[in-house]
Amino acid sequence: MATDFSTNYERKLSALGNKVQEYIDSLKVKAEELIFNGFPDKIVQLNNIIETSNFKNKLSVNVHQDLNIPIPAANSGNTSDGLLPAKRIKYTNNRIASENSIETNDDTNNYLLSPIPINRHVMELVAVVKPHIRSLVEDANMLKMWITVMIPKIEDGNNFGVSIQAGTLAEIQSVEVGTSAFFEQISKYYVARGKLISKVRKYPYVDDYRHAVEELDEKEYLSLCLMMVEIRNHYCCLHDIVLKNFEKIKKPRITNASETFC
């Protein structure tokens, strides 16, 4: 009975091992296809995108957009200093209640409820850049796995090729982490813009907040253009470093026969 269990267990392990090996073999094929064909195609594609007007004329493109937040009339319930009326506190039956010192009219309520449009210029650029960010992260992850599965077991001596693998792997990991940070940068832009717009809505007479929104939009537009260039550069660097060290990455250690022959 114990023998049957042991035999079945070994067969199961063998079947699972075969599936893992199939995955590793397919990973190697996909990674090499990516290196020799995928990366060059991607670099050419990114170069073509960077040469389009949205990216090439990034310093002259007008990215400003109307916030749809008008400056209320003087009698719309704002105080003399241009701020919305403060709330005063009163005590009634030992309870604290707050009420507006001045009631706002219908026009003020309308602009407070009106939607604020997103900057379409920035949004269009995000739609172009974001898929390439995701693609680079996925490609870097595949290369990382490809090198990892080819690292030989630890032995004494003859580790020059292994050190090349480790250096290349570190470079790929750096690209992966740096590119992933682009996602966070985009989300932080939306959060920062939302906070500034809430200030514009709360203090419509303060022009500094309106200009701050415009400056933020310009900064993000330029950052997105630079992101695309950086993505292209990352692809070029990965392609270059892998090709230069391809043989050492695939065969980090020479055989004893080759060593003797040399």
Can you give a write-up of this model?
With 262 residues, this protein is mainly alpha-helical. The chain has a domain at 28-69 and 117-254: Proteasome activator pa28, C-terminal domain (Four Helix Bundle (Hemerythrin (Met), subunit A)), CATH 1.20.120.180. The protein contains eight helices and two strands, in the order ααββαααααα. The chain has helices spanning 2-50, 53-56, 106-113, 120-150, 160-202, 207-244, 246-250, 256-261, and strands at residues 87-92, 95-100. Strands 1-2 form a two-stranded antiparallel sheet. β1 and β2 (95-100) form a beta hairpin. The longest helix has 49 residues, at 2-50.
Give me some keywords for this one:
262 residues; mainly alpha; Four Helix Bundle (Hemerythrin (Met), subunit A); 70% helix; elongated; disordered C terminus
